[in-house]
Design brief:
Blueprint lengths: L8 H24 L14 H15 L3 H17 L5 H12 L1 H26 L1 H7 L1 H13 L4 H10 L5 H7 L7 H11 L1 H12 L13 H20 L14
């Protein structure tokens, strides 16, 4: 999997800083909010719970914008770091509370910060977990990264835009197969924008959603794949290997 290296001090410091931000942010939000019944504050697991949560938070967003932003980011980053399902509801919530432009910026920031935190955590302790959960995917990913090293950013962008590999797996496996953090971060920041746009836009009309299947119509899915193909084309043109092996990862 590549030679073992000491964990750089700056990466350890950044990872610790992100973890500390969870606790500080949530405590700060709690202390600065008015006395009230906050029993409605829980992670939504379906659209009905999300709509209920949105209805309550809309009353606070205009008067306590900073607190809601900090609380939102802390929860989103925590969920991404520890692979807690449900971030799609958080993305919808961003659209409902903050609109298209601010919502997309917020989702991309929080998702990228959470992915980075997961990256650092995996670099420290994640190798046994990834080996046990996805041995075949890890072997495939390692070969692809080694083969496309010269144009790795294009390949990582392709993975972020398309569902070729799960985002959770990418976050955990990237440090293990020696994907440089700056490439991981840049691909995450750029590659998450299309999906964030689609989800946030749906969140603006949250009341009209009846199912998560309504999020991605044929046109949206085709657009995401087109962006993915465009992003990976330079890497494919510079490699003599045939591309169909990418399909192995989805099995």
């Amino acid at each position: 999997m590549g030679k073992e290296e000491r964990f750089p001090v700056w990466e350890a410091s950044l990872g610790a800083g992100v973890a500390a931000a969870f606790a500080v942010g949530l405590v700060g939000v709690y202390l600065s909010m008015p006395d009230s019944d906050y029993s409605f504050l829980k992670l939504p697991r379906n659209l009905e719970e999300l709509q209920t949560l949105t209805g309550h938070l809309e009353n606070y967003t205009s008067d306590y914008t900073i607190q809601v932003l900090v609380g939102y980011c802390s929860v989103y980053i925590f969920m991404q770091t520890f692979m807690i399902p449900g971030t799609i509801f958080m993305s919808l919530l961003a659209g409902a509370l903050f609109g298209q432009l601010r919502g997309v910026a917020l989702v991309v920031f929080a998702a990228s910060a959470g992915a980075s935190s997961c990256f650092f955590l995996s670099k420290l302790i994640g190798k046994p977990l990834v080996f046990s959960l996805w041995p075949d995917k890890l072997m495939f990913f390692q070969k692809q990264v080694a083969k496309r090293r010269e144009k790795l950013l294009n390949y990582m962008l392709f993975l972020r835009v398309t569902p070729t590999l799960p985002n959770t797996f990418i976050n955990l496996a990237s440090p293990i197969v020696d994907v440089p953090y700056h490439i991981f971060l840049l691909a995450t920041l750029i590659g998450l924008i299309p999906a964030a746009y689609v989800t946030v836009r749906a969140g603006i009309a949250l009341g009209e959603l009846t199912s998560l299947n309504d999020l991605y119509d044929t046109q949206s899915i085709a657009l995401l794949f087109l962006i993915g193909v465009v992003s990976v084309t330079p890497a494919l043109l510079g490699n003599d290997e045939k591309t169909p092996e990418m399909a192995v990862a989805t099995s």
